Amino acid sequence: MTDHRSPDARFRTSLLEENDGPATNPTDNRTMGEIIASRFSRRGFLKGSLAVSAIAATVSPLALVSADNARAAEGSAFSFDELEAGIDDKHHVAPGYDADVLLRWGDPLFADSPEFDPTKQSAEAQLKQFGYNNDYVGYIPIDGSAEHGLLVVNHEYTNSHLMFPGIVKIVDKDGKKALEVAPLSKEQVDVEMAAHGGTIVEIRKDGGKWQVVRDGKLNRRISSNTEMALSGPVAGHDRLKTSADPSGTKVIGTLNNCAGGVTPWGTYVMAEENIHGYFSGELPADHKEAANYKRLGIPEGAYEWGAHYDRFDLAKEPNEANRFGWIVEVDVNDPTSTPRKRTAMGRFKHEGAESIVAKDGRVVFYLGDDERFDYVYKFATKGTFNPNDRAANMNLLDDGTLHVAKFAEDGSVEWLPIVFGQGPLTAENGFADQADVLIETRRAADLLGATKMDRPEDIQPNAGNGKVYVMLTNNSKRKAEQVDAANPRAENAFGHIIEIVEDGGDFTATKGKWEVLLKCGDPSVAEVGATFSTATTANGWFGMPDNCAVDSAGRLWVATDGQGPKATGRTDGLWAVDTEGSARATSKLFFRVPIGAEMCGPLFAPDDQTAFVAVQHPGDGGEDWEPFGRPSYYEDLSTRWPDFKPDMPVRPSVVAITKQGGGKIAV
């Protein structure tokens, strides 16, 4: 079946997060695959325990870590009976745990919110209801409580074919069945715009179960129409001025908020990712922004917003796209506050903004640019965190240094400062000031020679052991000539995880060491080259690492995006991954999502007695989703999770996982 608007068999908004189009990185900078291959081809010359561990990660799965399965299992930091991998229309959690749906798309958030009615959707109603495609989940305690706080949730994007009745029809075309997808009305586009953004909602644990506090005084919806301020070095720059905002300091809305973060001072950080899909129209080839936009894949036109709003049509507002692709900070303590786009943190397809306080009090944020052959970044504030004065921290993100990673084959990593006037970041290369450098962060990183990565996603610092975990989802575009026998990961379909140790355990350091913690995929298939420990069961391996979390015990949890019948024979889910000792590289399945869904979040409450996870785009998929063998859309869904009612569509939802009888997760 074919969508008449696209040669691809699936719906265009579903493709946004896959980023499987032509690579936009034009440089000949070395790829991570080439560096890994070179490093391990000379592994006999490497010295030190980090190098030895890296070498171990390249050997056969049958020899990895230990030949003694029992020894590895006994050394695991996790205690739970593993869930069985599989595919069906429901969610599943490990035995002994409850997984309760806490918030669904359309659920009321305020005392005066209307109940959800999928046949009578409106922007006005959606702005008072939980948004669509929940991704990042954060928790901010109220009065220090692990059982009463604010849940903050990003709403990354919308799938109109799953949201609205009557959008999709099956028609006969030249004797074959084809999809006919109707254009959206302005009213439906308005609903989409309202369903984007984020939710801030008070929640409370009562009798061991979490509940939404609908009259919470801090409850708030943020959308694609929420007024925001630009702050930092780019604010007011000519390249951000539009007819609606000649000052270049005020933006309407935020787009495609994927992973995010909560700052040490208790604000909510939203990361704008795949902004390219919202813009349509064309710039002249000689327009001053043409090369800048090409590097970001703008315009892609997956959404129809430009047909109704001039600001999403580049031919009418050529500067508008420069106002997106930033990190947005929200003061959750004031529901009337203006969110701020913190431009000092760079402009690219942001995946996450997890932070940690360094030894000297500065705050470091780790940032992934979610596209094949793009880069890993970190931002270090100039000022220091004051734990006793929240107000003193509120503008820390406007001043600091953004760095990009360059990985070397000797196991070292260098963080290169992205600063105007340093190295190639000069007027000779088209940069007039730091604002230009930040608007074109990708091009600046290109010129610095950063390492081209296999789709950087979530990046988590671990305060417990001083390490940093980088999720690299996959890279189907890596060519065979970029690797060798020591690194058989051409067309890297399953991704891998890199572990970084900063010099001296200092997260602000500009140098460190790296190694591959895990190459993902089915270890029983030799040519895949996966490196899970031999204690990992047939249920325990995974592919496509995406989001991750480090709980208060310092343990790593990995969520996946992109598994399915043809890719792995299992749905996405949440895996517990050992990173230390004899059990290192052992993985166990804890939770899995229904068919078509992606696993987002995850988040652990401060007491580790709840794991919040976000089930995104359940029921999405097309002809590749066997045994269903057909596209899934509103009238003909592959699942009706979580309500399983004939009059209800699929509803992306946040799920709260707790241990039956109480207690910490996996302990």
Task: Provide keyphrases for this structure.
mainly beta, Neuraminidase, nine-stranded antiparallel sheet, 10 helices, 33 strands, 29% strand, globular, disordered N terminus
Task: Give a brief description.
By secondary structure, the chain is mainly beta.
CATH homologous superfamily label: TolB, C-terminal domain
Look at the structure and give the mean pLDDT.
89
What is the domain total for the residues? 1
SS content category: mainly beta
Strand order of the largest sheet: 16-17-19-20-21-26-25-24-23
What is the CATH class?
A: Mainly Beta
Please give the count of helices: 10
> Which stretches are low in confidence, meaning pLDDT under 50 for 5 or more residues running?
1-9, 42-68, 484-488, 623-628
